[in-house]
Design brief:
The protein is an alpha+beta fold. It folds into 2 domains: 8-275, no CATH class; 312-456, Oxidoreductase, molybdopterin-binding domain (Sulfite Oxidase, Chain A, domain 2, Alpha-Beta Complex). The protein is 37% helix and 13% strand. It contains 13 helices and 10 strands. The protein has helices spanning 33-38, 58-85, 115-129, 131-141, 154-181, 191-223, 226-229, 259-275, 312-315, 319-322, 341-346, 373-379, 406-410, and strands spanning 328-332, 335-339, 350-357, 363-372, 385-392, 401-405, 415-420, 423-424, 434-436, 449-456. Strands 2-1-10-5-6 form a 5-stranded mixed β-sheet. Strands 3, 4, 7, 8 and 9 form a 5-stranded antiparallel β-sheet that branches. Helix 3 (115-129) packs antiparallel against helix 8 (259-275). The chain is elongated and about 80 Å long. It starts with 32 loop residues before the first helix and ends with a strand. GO terms for molecular function: oxidoreductase activity. Keywords: Membrane, Transmembrane, Transmembrane helix. Pfam families: Oxidored_molyb (PF00174).
């Protein structure tokens, strides 16, 4: 954005500050903060003089901060909604035990049918789109990361600690989120647990930081009209007046880019990332543009050429498991029924056009045909329905089984799907039968279903 060029001699080091005789340095006894200032670590002396870009200052930092203040809460809130969509009341949202961070009980709705598609799509797409803004914001304040001493009062120490959690939290969430999307599990720890608690740590730091800095941010934004600043060329770019936070360079050098150029660079990179991401939520030719999301790209052509997260081979499902000997077992209140695929096809069939959306952010809209779940419940005489527990032929894995809420079972478009887009399901798409429920996370639309147990209400 602008080169930071200088030599250490151009600017006095942190240990060079002097105070009037008899006046304690920084308002504290000299044995306190001033003692730290007089003994900087190796390499710290004069480091603040190496940052000379005239672009840095409260205004540019506040512009980036305003964008993040709008975008990051949206990412956090959609993440919480997605956590609720997994049904934490059944112990199938991860992490299972969140202590006092437990969210209020909530039955995830089935309408609109695209609800999870939108919340998870926004969570991933907005999160990726904001990465250049986060990096731009960090660039604008990077000299402050090298301040020595790191704090000159207790209040400033608390502020720096909140900033450490803020910066560390957002970088941790971005890094782990991107690796999860790419299916690159390099963590050495449980991603779901770390991502959930990491988000709360970040939000707590964000709230603290906003409370401390909001007034200064608003003052900085009012200091320069955006329209006027966007007309200033590089040659006319001048540093802002000195500020209390020390963001403005003490000895600014010449600008190598204007503030307009800096904003255009960050905005352009954000638009590029959005363009390479949003295609995973769209069908047809647009899905080919999802270059950053391998799971969201179209894997083939024809009626079953849409994405899958887990293939039959990866799940250990073979032809012997899904052949003529396959049976579906239905249970309710001690009663049981066993059906083969021919019996299911002989029942009344219902067709619904429903999306299926994945935690990685991809989604697709397809036409499914099968037996309504509520018809299967009626077949075994399920009474006051509380939930349904669905088991897969898959022997292991986090999502080899799922529990559905009563409203999800009773929705008229909730299906045990046997066909998709007019053809039989393929093994990768869950043949011989899979669950499809409006607004349900894709991993809970269980494939290769072997058993459904309809359970009554606990208060019945």
């Amino acid at each position: 954005m602008s080169a930071d060029r200088t030599s250490p001699a151009d600017h006095p080091g942190p240990g060079s500050r002097t105070d009037p005789p008899g006046r304690p340095a920084y308002g504290f006894p000299r044995r306190g903060w001033a003692l730290l200032a007089e003994h900087p670590p190796p390499g710290a002396r004069g480091v603040d003089g190496r940052w000379r870009s005239p672009l840095r200052g409260p205004w540019l930092t506040s512009v980036y901060g305003l964008v993040l203040l709008v975008g990051l809460p949206l990412v956090f809130l959609t993440g919480l909604l997605d956590y609720l969509a997994y049904g934490p009341q059944f112990g199938q949202a991860f992490p299972r035990d969140v202590g006092w961070l437990r969210l209020p009980p909530f039955d995830w709705p089935t309408r609109p049918s695209w609800l999870f598609r939108v919340t998870q799509g926004l969570h991933v797409t907005v999160g990726i789109t904001l990465i250049p803004v986060v990096l731009g914001k960090l660039w604008s304040v990077i000299p402050k990361l090298f301040d020595w001493p790191p704090a000159r009062s207790v209040a400033q120490l608390l502020e720096r600690l909140s900033l450490l959690l803020l910066v560390g939290g957002i970088l941790f969430e971005i890094a782990t989120g991107l690796l999860d999307i790419q299916y690159a599990y390099l963590f050495g720890f449980d991603f779901y647990t770390a991502h959930y608690f990491g988000a709360w740590v970040f939000v707590a730091a964000l709230v603290t930081h906003v409370a401390l800095k909001l007034r200064r941010m608003l003052t900085a934004l009012r200091s320069r009209p955006v329209r006027a600043e966007l007309t200033v060329p590089r040659d006319a770019t001048r540093p802002e007046p000195p500020d209390p936070d020390g963001l403005v360079a003490a000895r600014p050098g010449p600008a190598t880019v204007s503030r307009r150029g800096a904003l255009a660079l960050v905005g352009g990179l954000s638009l590029l990332l959005a363009g390479l991401t949003v295609g995973q939520t769209l069908d047809g030719r647009w899905r080919r543009t999802a270059l950053l999301l391998p799971r969201g790209r179209q894997p083939g052509t024809g009626p079953t050429g849409f994405p899958v997260n887990r293939t039959a081979a990866a799940a250990g499902i073979g032809a012997a498991d899904t052949g003529a000997g396959w049976r579906l077992t239905l249970r309710a209140d001690g009663r049981q029924a066993t059906l083969d695929r021919a019996a299911l096809l002989a029942m009344p069939q219902h067709t619904a056009r429903l999306p299926i959306a994945c935690v990685e952010g991809w989604s697709t809209l397809q036409t499914w045909t099968g037996v309504r779940l509520r018809d299967l419940a009626a077949l075994v005489g399920a009474g006051a329905l509380g939930s349904a527990h669905v088991r897969s032929l898959e022997k292991a894995g986090l999502f080899a089984q799922a529990t559905l809420q009563a409203n999800q079972v009773l929705d008229p478009d909730s299906l045990l799907a046997l066909r998709v887009n007019g053809v039989d399901l393929t093994p990768d798409h869950g043949f011989p039968a899979r669950v499809i429920v409006p607004a349900l996370p894709g991993v809970h639309c269980t494939k290769w279903v072997s058993e459904i147990e309809f359970r009554g209400r606990t208060d019945a």
